[in-house]
Each structure stands twice: as structure tokens, then as C-alpha cells.
Design a protein that fits this description.
Elements (H helix, E strand, L loop, with lengths): L7 H15 L3 E2 L33 E9 L3 E9 L8 E12 L6 H7 L1 E2 L3 E5 L3 H14 L12 E5 L14 H10 L17 E2 L2 E2 L2 E7 L8 E9 L11 H4 L15 E9 L5 H18 L7 E9 L6 E2 L18 H20 L3 E3 L5 E2 L4 H10 L14
Parallel strand pairs: 6-7, 12-13
Antiparallel strand pairs: 1-15, 2-3, 3-6, 4-5, 4-13, 4-14, 8-9, 10-11, 11-12, 15-16
Length: 397
């Protein structure tokens, strides 16, 4: 099974926008959407990569299948490919970190044990994990060179979109997973109400898929860290220190009954830094700090998982190889701190992008979830003097 060598984003961007306007359940008319940097919200001090997305890490591809049908199907699939080749034959070092384990992350125990990822990473809804797992295993078995493979550890994560999607209808099919993998491309990543983020919510507003990246200065290695999130969690939204959730009067513990709290967040971290599983797990742990900076707190009902991997060519693990990758020149512990900062900043911005790019949606039982009101948020950010921070702080050297 081969992947299509096309830049899906560039070729169909205008057509997709037109299609979304007329799709039932999505409202783009309320306000102009954009990424947070389009509105002067600059997160952190490190520069972004070219696309400000996980695809800034060389080799990483992302694809979506979005399912929006009738008045109750609001779901989908997102596929993240560590590189263009056969991932099973050239595995990548990987690690998993669990912020709060109220969720389902298929394949996590083998990643934890062996420190390797051998399939595309698939994100979908809670009840479609088994379907997605079956599909990614079949996809892997069909690849050239895998004809005699008898064991595959697929990696599939989820959040629960049952509030807006007919999750019990099992609408995600194996073909939807195959399509997401085949559509995976480098370049700009579609965000908001797409793929696995179609039916999600975040801080009481519409959530979705978001991404961001950071590039270290050459004297710190020049490495890139990219993050993709599937946001479906709650808390008290904070943007660069501005108490946006409180100002908008929508936050956890507002009123007598706890709300805006449960849900989940899947975080995928990619880097081209030469890291093996131990330091990848340390890197993954810092992504949770980025979630906290946004106002999330890994509540009891939230499944917050981080999957991290390295794309560095010398770190790849050939199938049935008898050689050890321990001979590579891995980033030493003492030089990890800049990477920790990079993943924190990229996670924080990816969460914001998932909300700013999402649109108001009407789903199951007529339930309506509003997109975050961008203009109000900008006014709050102005009030707390947190816009255009690069003009107010010294440039990072």
C-alpha cells in the first residue's frame, strides 16, 4: 500500500474552505479564524519552524479523515507518520508519558518496554480505538517487505467525542484510517475541526487538532521540536498569563456544579534531536507542563498522554538488526533543558491553535459548542498586556 505523494493542504485548501461552509453543523460565519500568532499572541521566547507545526521535524507527515454527516456524526481520524519509509522496518525511538491515565492508549506497554515505535501513530475517538488498531496493523502487514511479519505493535490514542458525536454508532471504519495515512503530507497541518479533533471541546469551547514547533539556536544543537495535540479537556483557560477563562466567565468550578473539567488530551511530540527512549520520556513529561500553562490540570476524568519520538536517522532501529543504536552520539542530559523548554512552548501554543482554528459546531441532540470568541480574547490579552511580547522582551540568543 503506497502513500500519495501530494501536498494535500496546498492543492485543496480553497476547496476545503468552501466545503466546510456548507457542511451541516459547522458555522464559519461568526468571525474570522486564524492561528494565535496571526493575532499577536506569541508564546515563549524560542523561534518556530517554517510551518510552526509538527511537520517542521524532517520526515514527519500528518493526515486527516474528517467525518461530518447528518446531525450527529462528528468524528474522524488523524495519522502521524514518523517518516516516509516503512516504519516497521525502520523503527524510531519512542516513549510514552502519562499525565492522567483515564484513557486508552493502545500499544503503550510495548513502547514503554522496548522504547520503539513501529507504526504510524493514530488518533481517533474512544470507541474506535479497536477499529483503528486493526486498520494500522493491516496497513503495516501489507507494506512491501513485511510479508513474513507476524507481530505488529500499533499505537492508537483517543479522546471521547461522545458529547457531539454519535460515538456508539461506530462510524469510523478501517478505510477511514487507511485514508488518513494515505493523505499524510508534510507542510502546513490542518487544524481545528478536522480528523480526530472534529467533535472535541476544550475549556468549554470548541477544541480540535492544533500544532506548533520550536527550533533551537545552532549553538544549542539547532534541533527542532514539533507538537500535535487533540484537545478535549477542561480547566481554567490562561493565555500567556491573561486569565481568559475567568474573564469570559467559563471555567472549572464556576457555579455550584463542577463543569468544564473532564475530558482528555493526546499530545504527540516529534524531534530530530538524537534521543533514545529514556530522554524522550523526559521530553514527553515536559509537554504536560505546557498543558498546565494553558490552565489544564489533568483532572480525574481526563486521559492525558504524551507520545514522543525521534526522527534522527542514526536513531532508527532496523528490523531484526543485531546492532545497537547505543553507539550514536545522543544528546547528553546536561543539554536537554533547551529541548524541555521547546516542547513546553510548542505544546502550549498547539493547544491555543486548536481552539483558535476551531469553529462553532452543532452536533448530537442539537448540542451546540461555540468557538472561542477570538476578538473578545484579544481584548482580554490587550487588557493584561500580553500581546506582541517579542517587542517587549530581549530576543533569545
Amino acid at each position: 500500500m503506497s502513500r500519495k505523494k501530494i501536498n494535500f493542504f496546498n492543492k485543496v485548501r480553497s476547496a476545503l474552505f468552501f466545503a466546510l461552509v456548507i457542511i451541516p453543523g459547522i458555522d464559519l460565519s461568526a468571525q474570522n479564524r486564524g492561528r494565535v500568532r496571526d493575532f499577536g499572541i506569541e508564546v515563549g521566547i524560542l523561534p518556530t519552524g517554517r510551518w510552526n507545526g509538527i511537520t517542521d521535524v524532517q520526515g514527519v507527515h500528518v493526515g486527516h479523515t474528517t467525518l461530518i454527516e447528518g446531525d450527529s456524526i462528528r468524528t474522524g481520524v488523524t495519522a502521524i507518520l514518523p517518516h516516509e519509509g516503512n516504519v516497521f522496518q525502520e523503527k524510531v525511538p519512542g516513549a510514552v508519558y502519562v499525565g492522567n491515565g483515564f484513557g486508552k492508549l493502545a500499544g503503550s506497554t510495548q513502547v514503554e518496554e522496548l522504547g520503539e515505535i513501529e507504526t504510524p501513530i493514530i488518533l481517533t475517538n474512544t470507541l474506535s480505538v479497536s477499529t483503528a488498531l486493526s486498520a494500522v496493523v493491516k496497513y503495516t502487514l501489507r507494506l512491501d517487505g513485511n510479508e513474513r511479519v507476524g507481530s505488529v505493535n500499533g499505537v492508537v490514542g483517543e479522546t471521547n467525542d461522545g458529547g457531539f458525536n454519535d460515538i456508539r454508532g461506530f462510524h469510523v471504519q478501517e478505510e477511514d484510517v487507511f485514508q488518513a495515512i494515505e493523505k499524510a503530507v508534510t507542510g502546513p497541518v490542518e487544524e481545528g475541526c478536522v480528523g480526530a479533533g472534529t467533535g472535541t471541546s476544550c475549556f468549554g469551547f470548541k477544541g480540535g487538532i492544533g500544532t506548533s514547533s520550536r527550533k533551537l539556536p545552532s549553538n544549542l544543537g539547532g534541533w527542532t521540536v514539533g507538537v500535535l495535540v487533540q484537545t478535549n479537556f477542561g480547566g481554567i483557560l490562561d493565555i500567556n498569563g491573561a486569565p481568559v477563562g475567568r474573564e469570559l466567565n467559563k471555567y472549572y468550578l464556576r457555579g455550584r456544579v463542577p463543569s468544564q473539567e473532564s475530558g482528555s488530551c493526546m499530545i504527540v511530540v516529534a524531534t530530530d534531536a538524537p534521543l533514545l527512549s529514556r530522554n524522550l520520556r523526559r521530553l514527553a513529561a515536559r509537554a504536560i507542563l505546557g498543558l498546565a500553562r494553558c490552565g489544564g490540570f489533568c483532572s480525574n476524568g481526563s486521559g492525558d498522554y504524551v507520545i514522543a519520538f525521534s526522527t534522527h536517522p542514526e536513531c532508527r532501529i532496523p528490523y531484526r538488526s543485531r546492532e545497537s543504536v547505543r553507539s550514536i552520539k545522543e544528546v547528553i542530559n546536561g543539554r536537554m533543558s533547551p529541548l524541555f523548554l521547546a516542547v513546553l512552548e510548542a505544546t502550549q501554543e498547539a493547544v491555543y491553535n486548536s481552539m483558535f482554528q476551531a469553529t462553532t459546531m452543532v452536533g448530537k441532540n442539537g448540542r451546540r459548542i461555540e468557538a472561542i470568541p477570538i476578538q473578545q480574547v484579544i481584548e482580554i490579552c490587550k487588557k493584561y498586556n500580553v500581546l506582541n511580547l517579542s517587542k517587549k522582551i530581549p530576543e533569545a540568543k
